[in-house]
Amino acid sequence: MVMAGKKIKSLSDIEQLRQRLLGEQRSYKARVLICMTGCRALGAQEVGAEFREKLKNLSLDKQVAVVETGCIGMCARAPVVLIEPYRYLYGGVTPEDVGEIISATIQQGRAVERLAVVQNGKPAACIDEIDFYKKQKRRVLENCGRIDPKRIEDAIERGGYITAIKAISEKGAQRIIDEVTRSGLRGRGGAGFPTGVKWGLARKSPGDEKYIICNADEGDPGAFMDRALLEGDPHRVIEGMIIAAYAIGASRGFVYVRAEYPIAVEHVHIALEQARSLGLLGEKIGGADFSFDIEVRMGAGAFVCGEETALIASLEGKRGMPTSRPPFPAESGYRGKPTNINNVETFGNVPIILKDGAESYSSIGTEKSKGTKIFALAGKVNNTGLAEVPMGATLREIIFEIGGGIPKGRRFKAAQMGGPSGGCIPAAYLDTEIDYDSVQQIGAIMGSGGLIVMDENTCMVDVARYFLQFVQSESCGKCPPCRVGTKKMLAILERICRGEGELEDLDVLERLGRDIKKASLCGLGQTAPNPVLSTLRYFREEYEEHVVLKTCRASVCEGLVRAPCQHGCPAGVNVPEYLALAAEGRLSEAANIIRRRNPFVSVCGRVCDHPCERRCRRGEIDQPLAIRALKRYIADNMPDFAVPMVRPVHRGAEAAIIGSGPAGLSCGYFLALMQRSSVIFEAEPIPGGMLALGIPEFRLPKQVLQKEIDFILSHGVELRINSRVDEASELISQGFKAVFIGTGAQRGKDIRIEGIELKGVVDSIEFLRDRALGKGMDCGDEAVVVLGGGNAAIDVARSAVRLGAKKVTILYRRSREEMPAYEEEIEGAIGEGVELVTLAIPKRIIGSKGSVAGVEFIRAEPGKAEADGRRRPIPVEGSETTIECDIVIPAIGQVPSVEAAHFINGPELTKWGTIKVNPVHKGTTARGIFAGGDCVSGPASVIDAIAAGQKAAISIDKLLGGSGELPRDTGFSFVKPDEEVLAQGPPRFEEEIIPPSQRRRGFAEVVLGIDREQALAEAGRCLRCDLEK
Amino acid sequence: MSDVAVTINGAKLVGRAGQTILELALENGVDIPNLCHDPRLAPAGSCRLCLVEVEGQRVPVTACTFKIDPGMVVRTQTPEIRELRKTILELLFYEHRGACTTCNENGTCSLQKYAYEYELDESIFTAPPKAEPARNYTTGNEAIEYDPDKCIRCGRCIRICEEVQMDSALTFKERASAVEVTTAFDMPLNESTCELCGQCISTCPTGALYERRAKGRGQCKDLVRTRTTCPYCGVGCQIDLNVNPKTNQIVRVTSEVGCIPNDGNLCVKGRFAMDFVGSDKRLTTPLIKRNGEFEPATWDEAIELVASKLGGIKAAYGADSIGGLSSAKCTNEDNYVFQKFIRAVIGTNNVDHCARLCHASTVAGLAKAFGSGAMTNSIDELKNTGCIFVIGSNTTEAHPVIGLVIKEAVVKNGAELVVADPRSIDLVRFAKLHIAQKPGTDVALVNAMMNVIIAEGLLDEEFIKERTEDFDALAEAVRDFSPEKAEAITTVPAEKIREAARIYARASSASIVYSMGITQHTTGTDNVLSLANLAMLTGNVGKESAGVNPLRGQNNVQGACDMGALPNVYPGYQSVEDEKIRAKFEKAWGKELSTNKGLTVVEMLHAAQAGRIKALYIMGENPALSDPNLNRTRRALDAVDFLIVQDIFLSETAQYADVVLPSVCFAEKNGTFTNTERRVQRVRKAVDPPGKARDDWRIVCEVAAKMGYPMGYECAGEIMDEIASLTPIYGGISFERLARPSTGGRARRRPGIDSVGLQWPCPDKSHPGTNYLHKGKFTRGKGKFHAVEFKDPAELPSRKYPFVLSTGRLLYQFHTGTMTRKSSAINQVSPTGFVEIHPDDAKRLDISDGLMVEVVTARGKVTTPAKVTPDIGKGWLFMPFHFEEGPANMLTIDELDPLAKIPEYKVCAANIRRLHGKG
């Protein structure tokens, strides 16, 4: 194939060759480009063979070229095929698809839409339309996926080697170094040392014998950009090496590549041989007075051999252990001679600089980081693959625009950058412009460009443990900080993950991490603690939860987690076992298990925010189980709902409970389970707290709640309504041995806005409460504007609709995705005709004659991320808009009412006005007084309140001399489901909802629940991961 | 080197360019903690303990790797640095089994020391629970034990093996916390390339590496160290005997880094072959043979018997019917007294010792050429020479620590090494050129080299003109000796001879190193003269890092010669035939002395066999195994009327004795040895002798007194004073000057003259000693060229004896094995003798490796296992001579060099055959 013997002796030789090759290229009508590197494992070869055969059968093989290329980029959709000149990109192609591709695309120029990427619900076949590519700037990768890497002709046809020949025949070495220095190119291996400066040092070092080494020992898990470049376009790297060798005066070079990259090794070998046969390597390259050759050396896969001194040791045949610097390789490297080592991608950038000039190159990027950077997108992101972006792109652009966001609608939690020794970047920095310096500032490193995306189901402690384990096992063992320090840190992390950690451990981790960074010999040790330090910096809370609460919020840490769903439930309900019983139709037994940890089976079957479902492992396979619907099914269908768990107890004034919300009721209930009597004091005329007063009936019917409260009271819990308590400590003096405060967050947060005093402005909580107490306003024919984006706002809006409002509008300052309300509730509201105006900041309420006449708001656009990753809304100047309306209902959050905080001699409060408690036992700062629910946490979910009541009850029992043990809730079902049945299981059943037209008419329950058949099938989908241990 | 001013902790210090911060600090008494540092090794920066702050550096740097720069400001003790060090130490203890109370190293362990200094919480020393110690590469090894639980992975053992020993037997395996030291492929140590030098132990900063036999015999903190001189080869390594005073046992042998000549380095024998000292086979009481059986006797009985017998024989047959063999293993003082006894009390010059069997030709040859028969230069100078020409010396086996110096010169300093040896010895690995000349053809080889040098004008004409005489005779003799002519004799390709000549002659300075491959020939003196010619021809004598350097075989063979334990000279090579000198000694000793030269070793034995020698007094020699043609030797020992053997063991020779006198070994006596580079070094008493054993010189004095000649020395130092007064080259030597403060801890003091001995000539008390001889002027005035003709060895292969047999030493054994074979560590690796044979010969004769074979010469036969190896040439055999169960000297020939009277151990004709039914 290669024109053997025809050596290139001058610049014009290679330019002529290129012209000839371009001519040959034009003779093809179409080209089928198939990734034959990364996609090979997923059947690319079979697809290629099928194309060849079919094209031959159709006698199209002379007009249509089938080209085996390197990585085209969208690895998540392998095998990937690109058809030129149409630029249609197909993914997941099988040999069966080939016929259709030929007939539709090649013969008719039509896209095969079913093989195209789906974007916003629509297929996007042309590569130029695909978001994944649109936002990229593929310069280093420009030939990757476009040429057959095994054919040097393909590379030359696209301009390969011409820059090198030109540089060595026309430019002096110093000019090349100056050019590279001016371009601002920094080492793409991770540390970001200016490449030109490095070359200059090697050039200046005395010695006739110098070496160039290409570091292709890409060791970061999840990083594969060097591999892709070597596999897909080895010539670019070789060209970069030739230029570098000429610049520093080297005559020998090495490509040090790990042996696990057989395709890269093969392609480099082929490329070197072809380059040699063309005189592009060897004696007198391109006719110039410069000789240089390259050999390939394979590394055995030790991570540390990516460190340049260890790499050199390995190259010399020694154990791959780093040595102290100085001396630097530029002075004393391979065999003690001046040596320049650059990463694959760095060399890949060099021809661009020399071809277009330093100024053109440096026009892309940030102030101190120039050019593009290739990232390997991996982890919890839709479009995994290689993305080349300009320096200064934000993580949001890379992850959400190019990467297509997080699968399954889960929340982004952090991005791990820079490989195992990099750091975890939290959502707050999603909009930071990524370059060497900014990444370092926020506690990670650029590294080679590995980017692992993590969602909310990732435990940051576990992540730190995982990465530390990797670096620990890859430590060469030479210096104690790295060898032992990481081991000790790992032992601490493992302990924390088992739930055996102590708070002091966190300080030890920080101190050790700091010292290891300072004292370690090489880059590996100097960065090894980064994953721990960065997660401690941004996610210390999660560590503390592991240590103090013994919980893992992502339900990952095995030592703490029996089953993720159970662990995800704040009340710790044994989900797998009750589902197993439900699957057998044993509903009472199932409810019995639930009720050992949660008395509100019916309530939670309806309004729980079901953190269990977000953790469900089935969700990793298809969809999570509909646990909430199943719970409701159990509650609604069990025959003996009202039978108490235990006999009622009456032991006098043991515990007083203030507030009959879910927290207070639960506290009384669990005390009863532990044979303690209690009295609940409720200020309102009806019990239930926010369940009764805050959640509209169409979500939680009154009688359902009442049944549940009756069930609780049937355990001997005494309820006194209309009984306001002004002083918790008074209850103690009345003889109660313990007090639980569960007064909730009853007061709407004040909104500071002009016109708030106008008639027609109603607080959301008041609105809902009045409605619940039957004295509510009528919205007949009025226009209502609700301010806010939480569940209360939605509840208010949907209530207003039912109360006859002629128009209900919700104004929310951020985007729809950022609304805190449950997605299904938002959907429900929209279905019922509520208008949602997002990115709208209310400016003032317009009044007329003392009454509301409208709301003026200003449009906003999303700005940079705030601490929680949500983007700060930035007002758009001059976009003020007015909505006419009669009623304005602010619903921007709740705080504990003044009453909740009025216990002057009682517990201390936090600066947010909530009651300060110990997170483990819920004790306040006042002896004998406990607190829980919204008055402690601020507005939270029902299940959190139940959990708080449960924990407080346990503490009270202990305080009163009991063991604080709730009834045993495990050991009822050990049947492991059949794997095969599981694999074929039906998809998740969604609950039936009454149609919007019917919903608007009244307050009837919207969600209808599931039937028996659905319930049994759904429950049977459970994987029983609790039985895996 | 230029001075570099640096500020450390506020103090201005001046260092040298290229020095590291750590070197400068330690030199100036600024203690920077370190665990992976050993001045013998290239810095590694691996333990991280020597982190210091350097102004302008972003992070702390390791003092051991960071070179000083002018104006540098260093802080070694900031709170941050101390904190980091403490963390590092805590981490080390996290993996270290802190079992100090039961650890051998307790008291000298660096880790322990720093743990105290940095006030580590003792709770972290808790040893982790541990089952059986894991198997590792030292499992089953008798010499070295490795405990990974105590290892801090500093890599010093691996580095010393690679950088100093250049053996690379050790490596790390695994990664991260599983890293452990091991051999390649986890081979047991004895099957690896390990030479058991124990250098790894010497550099280990903790108790991870330890002498297995030392375990449980005393913790370091309780051991008393005594600095003395190694009793094995002629290198004269300074060793510290670590003695448990409670048991009077030598627990381990250490050596201080920085000491001269060995810089803390030792070989397997120095480190592991001291078991003989405490052996239960030691002689503890005089023995008298009655009716063919030895019976214990009192000293009075034995001395009385010896005195009366010697007196009687002298009276009956004359003084010359008595002979004495002195000992290269004994001190200078012992030797002086012994020869004085033979000369003054017996009245004969029949005194000689085993130097006759090793370097007599050196003494004779170099005396003829230069006027002085000793190593011209110092060991240390080899490091800086441009070319080393090693001929007839298997240095790494016979003089291992000099082997290290040669390897260092080549690998680190770029010296060019030419090895001329029929065998592919270990040094060949490092050689630029290997010449495998046929045994016994050295003169031809060297003559041809000189032919080339003259022909190509590579000679040093000025030196020849100014400093030498008789050049023309030499030029004439080698004129026709072309490399082609030599090729026919030596089988070495002519071109290689030319190359060797060029390398040697073109070097800035060139050192010749030789040993018994040159001397143990009937042409031994000729060989030595040829080398002397070669050196003078190129001006490589009388200057630093050059010279003609015979490596002496035994610890004090140089000293025994210096002391006049030779039949022709008094102490200091003063001729017995010179009347003035004789008069000086007669005056000093108060006796009339014999005017005739005495008999040499082999001559004495031949005379004994012939009945001319009636009584022999053998002090610390073992001719029944070491002398050539043993059958004849043993007949001679049988024939002697009265044989006195004075020794520490009942040796093969002692079996023939009529009286055996128990003496003390080196570790039990005070005195001096003189090493191969003429360095007079102290021997110090470290343990008490066994039973009734006595100092050699005391025994001799008592016999003398009984024979009416009391000598009256109180101590060895007094004897040295007498030596100095009569021996000009020792004139300035005294125990006071050789004294050294008692040994301290591990502090690295820069050695002063008090600890390094004195190199003769040292004519007066203010003289600093002499590094190299013949500076400006040869001892004899002008250097004398000798025309040397090539002669064949005495016995050439024949049809009946088609092989050439050569004998020599092994690394692990010494001399007749009397001492080394008492060591379990050594016996494990070197249990038996053998005969080396080339694979082609072996195949032809159906001999396989390990098979029992019979080696036969005209003088006897020996049964021994075969060792088939390509390291030996076709057509010849090699046997070590250490083993009494396969004594090579049964086979050797007792033909002598006519001048030096040295036997031709290196060449005789032999045959070999497989033994059927055995093997």
Account of the 3D structure:
The complex is a heterodimer of chains A (1029) and B (919). Chain A has 1029 residues and is α/β, with parallel strands linked by helices. In chain A, 38% of the residues lie in helices and 16% in strands. Chain A is built from 40 helices and 31 strands. A 5-stranded mixed β-sheet of chain A has the order 12-11-15-13-14. In chain A, helix 19 (503-519) packs antiparallel against helix 21 and helix 28 crosses helix 40 (1012-1019). The two termini of chain A are 59 Å apart. The mean pLDDT of chain A is 92. Chain B has 919 residues and is an alpha/beta fold. Helices cover 29% and strands 17% of the residues of chain B. Chain B is built from 30 helices and 37 strands. In chain B, the strands form 10 sheets. Chain B has a 7-stranded mixed β-sheet, with helices on both faces. In chain B, strand 7 and strand 8 form a beta hairpin. Chain B is globular. The chains are: A alpha/beta (1029), B alpha/beta (919). The interface between A and B is medium-sized, with 30 and 32 residues.
Helical stretch tally of chain A: 40
Number of strands of chain A: 31
The major β-sheet of chain B equals: 7 strands, mixed
List low-confidence stretches of chain A.
Answer: none
Number of helices of chain B: 30
Q: Name the overall outline of chain B.
A: globular
Mean pLDDT of chain A: 92
User: Ends of chain B: how far apart?
Assistant: 63 Å
The neighbouring-strand order within the major sheet of chain B is 14-13-27-26-25-15-16
For this structure, the quaternary state is heterodimer
Helix content class of chain A: 25-40%
Q: What general form of chain A does the structure show?
A: elongated
